[in-house]
Amino acid sequence: MTPRPGQEATVRDADITVRVSATADPAAVRSARLGLLLRSLRDRGPRSRGRLAEETGLTRTVATGLVDELVELGLVFCEDADRRGAGRPGVQVRLVGGAVCGVGAEVNVDHLAVVAVDLAGTVIAEARRGIDGRNLPAEGVLAELADLITDALAEARTAGTTVAAITVGVAGLVDTATQRVTLAPNLGWRDIDVAEDVRHRLAATAGLLGPVPPVRVANEATLAATAELDPADADRADMVVLYGEVGLGGAIVSGGRVAMGRHGWAGEIGHLQVDPRGRRCGCGRTGCWETVVGLRALLESATDPDDPIRDPALTLEERLATLVERARLADGRTLAALDEVGTWLGTGAAVLVNALNPGTVVLSGYYAALGEWLRPAVEARLAADVLAPRAGGTRVAVSAFGPTAAVRGGALVSLEPVLSDPTVLADLPELHGGTR
Amino acid sequence: MTPRPGQEATVRDADITVRVSATADPAAVRSARLGLLLRSLRDRGPRSRGRLAEETGLTRTVATGLVDELVELGLVFCEDADRRGAGRPGVQVRLVGGAVCGVGAEVNVDHLAVVAVDLAGTVIAEARRGIDGRNLPAEGVLAELADLITDALAEARTAGTTVAAITVGVAGLVDTATQRVTLAPNLGWRDIDVAEDVRHRLAATAGLLGPVPPVRVANEATLAATAELDPADADRADMVVLYGEVGLGGAIVSGGRVAMGRHGWAGEIGHLQVDPRGRRCGCGRTGCWETVVGLRALLESATDPDDPIRDPALTLEERLATLVERARLADGRTLAALDEVGTWLGTGAAVLVNALNPGTVVLSGYYAALGEWLRPAVEARLAADVLAPRAGGTRVAVSAFGPTAAVRGGALVSLEPVLSDPTVLADLPELHGGTR
Predict the structure, then answer these.
(1) Are the beta carbons of B356 and A234 separated by less than 8 Å?
(2) Chain-chain contact of A3 with B22 (C-beta, under 8 angstroms)
(3) Which tens digits make up the pLDDT trace of B379-412?
(4) CATH for B99-222+406-427, among 3.40.50.720, 3.40.50.300, 3.30.420.40, 3.40.50.2000?
(5) Phi-psi region at A256: left, alpha or beta (left = phi > 0; alpha = psi -120 to 50)
(6) What is the mean pLDDT of residues A138-151?
(7) Contact across the interface for B12 and A5, Cβ inside 8 Å
(8) Which of A225, A413, B84, B390 registers the highest number of CB atoms within 10 A of its CB?
(9) Contact assignment for A355 to B2 by CB distance below 8 Å
(10) So where does this one cross the membrane (chains A, B) (predicted)?
(11) CATH number of B5-95: 1.10.10.10, 3.20.20.80, 2.60.120.260, 3.30.465.10?
(12) Smallest Cβ distance to B388: which of A250, A268, A389?
C-alpha cells in the first residue's frame, strides 16, 4: 500500500516517539497522540496546554481537543477547571495518577508476589507469600496466587483505581502466541494455561466485585528487564538482566527493547552449561548455569540442611535478610558461598558479554539484596573472561527493585495498553463504584 | 529542543523508512530524501517520476527536483533525457548502477580477499590470495592486502566507477571508536592501526591514480552478517550468523540490525568455553568453541599433517573444494570430522539460540561450502539442547555467499554513506577520468 503523507503518523515530543503505521486510520493517529500526551505528562509533570502542544509538536487546537478527551477519560485534570473555557495560559494540565493501575504478579518456586502500580508509579497494593512450589500442584499454586490478586483488586477498588490489566510472570518458558506456560522445570509445570486458570479463579472471587480485567502471562525475567529499562541511560540501551531466583532467569535488551526473539522464547540463559562435571539440573541436563547460581545452590553451599533459613514457610525476604545479616557479620561460610556464586555468575555472564557487549549487566532478583558481596566476583570474572579490553566497558549494576523487579515490570507492562491508546480505558471493566 | 513539525524528517516509501533527527536542518532532510529515492530505485527498479513520487510519499515537484540532483550526481538517468523538460509521464528514472561502488576487503589467517560491488549489486572486481598469516608479520600481510586493493581500484577506474569507500574486515576485535584492531588472536595482532596503514600504502601505490577513498576497518563477522540481512524475511530480523574461518566469528542481528553492543565489541562468540578439558586456544584459554569448530580443527581431524590440503599456499577455495570432493566420495574420515564439527557447532549455537531465539542461524564463511554435511548435526544439537519446543522454531540456513560474505558485506557497508546521503559523492576523490 502507498502511504499517504497527510496521515504521517509519527508523533513525538523531544524524548518520546510514538510510531503507528503510515497507513493508519485517523482514529489510530488520535489514539497514539493521546498516548503521547499521557506519557509526556507522566514523565515530565504538569504543564500548560500551550507548552504541552509546543513540546509534543501538535497544534494548540489539536492538543486542546486531546486534553479534553483525556479529562473525559478521567486520566488528567486541569488545575483551574472552571476557567478552562477562557483558555487562560496559566492553567496546568496534570495527570490523575491514581485513575488507572496495572497489576503485576509472579509465580516462583518458593514465593508468590503481587503489586499494583498506578500511572504515576505509586504502589497502591503489594503482597508476597512463601510457598513450596515443588510439592504443591499447579492448581494449588494458582489458587494462592488468585487469592493475592483478589486482595490487590479489592485494594484498587477501595482506592478508586481502574485496573488496566494483570500480567503474571512465571519462571519458565512462556509461549507468547498461545499465552500458555510451556515448561517451568523448577516448578515441574508443563503446558499450563496460567492466564485462563487465573482468569477463571478471579471470575469466581474478584468477579463479585465486577468483571475481571484482562490477564496475560509472561516470562518473569522478561518482566524484570522491563522494570530496568531507562531510555535516558545509554548504558541501558544494550543490557543483560540476570534475574536470580531458585533458578536463573535472564533477559537481553538490544537497542532499548527487551529482545523477545523470533517466537518470543529469548532469554533462556539458565541452562548454559558451565560445569560439565556438575550437578543434575531440573531440565534433565548436567551442570547448567542455574545449578550453581540459583538461590538453591547458594543456600546449599552457605547452610546446613537443618538451618532454619531453609524452612519453606519463610518468605524470600526473610531468607535474604538472614543471609545479609550473616554476610555483614563476616560469617566465613556465607562469604565463601557468595564469592562462589558471584564467580559462577561472572563466568556465565562473560559469555553473554562477549556475544553482546552490553552497557550494563544488571543483578536482579535475589542477587540485588546480596549485590554488595556478589558484584566484586562478577566484575573479576568479566575482567578475566571478556576478550575486549576492560571487559568491553560493560558495567555491573545492582537492581534497585531486586526481588520485586518482575512484579513491577508486570505492572508496567499491564499499563502499556493504556499508554499506547488511552481510549481503551472506556472499554475496561470498572471494579469500583468510585468517581472517575 | 523542541521539534518543529514543519521539518518532520521521517521519509519513507512502502518498504523503506529513513529517519533523521526531528530537529535536522533542511539540508539533512534533502540528503535523506535523495537517499530514499536512490534505495528505492536500486531495490525496485526503474519507474516514472510520478510513480516514484507517489511511492515515496513526496510531492511531485519535490521528487522531480531530487531526481534532477541525482542525475547531476551521475547516479540516475532519465531514459528519455531529451524530452525530460516536457515532463512526459512515460519517462523512466533508472539507476546508473556502475556510477559508484564499494570495496570490501578481508584479512584472515590463511587468506586475503577483496571485492568491489557497484550500486546495482554487480561485482566489478574480485581477488583472493592464500597467505600464511601466522608467520607473516602484520606489515607483510597488509602490504599484500594493499596490493589486492590497488588492483581492485584500478579495475574500478577502468570501469569508470567511483569508489565510495574501502572497508577492511579483520578476524579480531576492532575498536570502532579508534578504528584500530585491538586484538586478533589467530593472527597474533595487538593494537594495529589497519585503516591508517592501508590508507598509507594505497596513497603510495593507488595514489598514483588519484586521491585514496576513505578506509575503515570492522570485524569480519559483523560484515558477513550485513551480507545476510534481508528486510523482507521475518526469519532474518533476529538472526545469529556463525562465520567459520581458521577460528570462529559471530554476529547477532536483533530487530533487523547487526547488534554492535554498547562499545562495538559484540559478536565475540568464538571463545565460549565448550570443552573445559579441550585444547589450548590462541586467546590463552582452554576449550574455546573455535578450537573445535574452526577450519584448523576440521583440517586436523579430517587430514594427516602431510596431507597436501594443508599446504599454506592453497587458497581457502581450493581446500574446501578438496574437502567437498572427499565428502561426496563418502570418505569416512572426512564425514566423521564434519559430523564432529557440526555437533560442536550446534552445541555452542544452542547457547545463543536459548538466549536469543533467532529466526535463523546462518552457517557462513567456510561452513557454507560444507553446509550439506554440517547442517544435520547442527539441527540435531539444537533440537536436543534448546529448551523451547522444536528448537524454538529456529531454522538453520546455509549462506549463499560463504567465504565471500565478509567482503560482500564490506562492499555494502562501503556504499552506505552514498545511500544515506548521495551528495557525499560530490566530495569523493575520483580515481578515474571516465565520464560520470
Answers:
(1) no
(2) no
(3) 999 999 999 999 999 999 999 998 899 999 999 9
(4) 3.30.420.40
(5) left
(6) 95
(7) no
(8) A225
(9) no
(10) none
(11) 1.10.10.10
(12) A268
Q: Which residues contact A351 (CB under 8 A, 6 or more apart)?
A: A272, B272, B273, B351
Establish if B302 touches chain A: CB-CB under 8 angstroms.
no
Phi/psi at B255 (5° precision): 60, 35
Determine contact: A8 vs chain B, CB below 8 A. Answer: yes
* Residue A5 in this model has a pLDDT that exceeds 60: no
Instruction: Output the nine-digit C-alpha cell for B285.
Output: 584459554
More confident residue, B18 or B338: B338
Q: 10 Å Cβ neighbour count for B224?
A: 36
Single-letter amino acid, residue A434: G
In A206-302, alpha helices (H): 220-228, 290-293, 295-302
The pLDDT score that the predictor gives to residue A257 is 92
Task: Give the pLDDT mean for A189-193.
Answer: 94
- The reply to whether B284 touches chain A by the CB within 8 Å rule is no
What was the ipTM of the complex prediction? Answer: 0.86
Residue B419's H or E segment, with its range, is helix B405-420
Q: What is the CATH number of domain A233-403?
A: 3.30.420.40
| Homologous superfamily of the B234-402 domain (CATH) | ATPase, nucleotide binding domain (3.30.420.40)
pLDDT at A82: 52
Note whether B247 contacts A: Cβ–Cβ < 8 A: no
DSSP element (H, E) containing B339:
helix B332-356
Q: What is the pLDDT of residues A255-303, one digit of tens each?
A: 999 999 999 999 999 999 888 889 998 888 899 999 999 999 999 999 9
Contact status of B178 with chain A (Cβ, < 8 Å)? no
B356 and A266 within 8 Å at the Cβ level: the answer is: yes
- Structure confidence at residue A208 (pLDDT): 64
